[in-house]
C-alpha cells in the first residue's frame, strides 16, 4: 500500500519546491500530468505508477523503482535515473534528453519515440 495518495502528493508539490519524497512508496498511484520537476525521489517506489505526461525535469530518481511504470510522454529532461529500475517501464515518446541513465535497468522497457535515448 502506498505511503501517500495522489491528493497528498499534489498538496506537497503545491507548497514545496524541490519536493522531498525520497524513499516514499508511491507504487500504483496515478500521478499523471503532475509537475514534479526537481523532486527528490531517491529510492522511491514508483512501481506500476502512472506518470503519463508527468513533468519530471531534473528530478532525482536515483535508485528509484520504476518497474512497470508508465512514463509515456513524460518530460525526464536532465533527470537523474542513475541505478533506477525501469524494467518493463513504458517510456514511449518520453523526453529523455540529458537524463543520467548510468546503471539503470531497462530490460523490457518500451522506448519507441523517446528522445535522447542512445543505443
* Tally of helical segments: 1
Q: Give the name of the CATH architecture.
A: 3 Solenoid
SS elements, strand count: 0
Helix content: under 10%
CATH superfamily: E3 ubiquitin-protein ligase SopA
How many domains? The number is 1
If you average the pLDDT, what whole number results? 95
What percentage of the residues does DSSP assign to strands (E)? under 5%
Low-confidence segments, given as residue ranges, are none
From the spread of the alpha carbons, the general shape counts as globular
**Could you give a short account of the major beta sheet?**
none
What's the CATH first level? Mainly Beta
The CATH topology is given as Pectate Lyase C-like
Q: Over the alpha carbons, how many angstroms does the gyration radius reach? A: 12 Å
What letter string, H or E per element, gives the SSE order?
A: H
- Kindly report how far apart the N and C termini lie: 36 Å
Question: How would you characterize the overall build of this protein?
Answer:
With 119 residues, the protein is largely without helices or strands. The chain is globular and about 35 Å long. The longest helix has 10 residues, at 6-15. It is built from 1 helix and no strands. The chain has one domain (1-119): Pectate Lyase C-like (3 Solenoid).
What features would you highlight for this structure?
little secondary structure; 8% helix; Pectate Lyase C-like; 119 residues
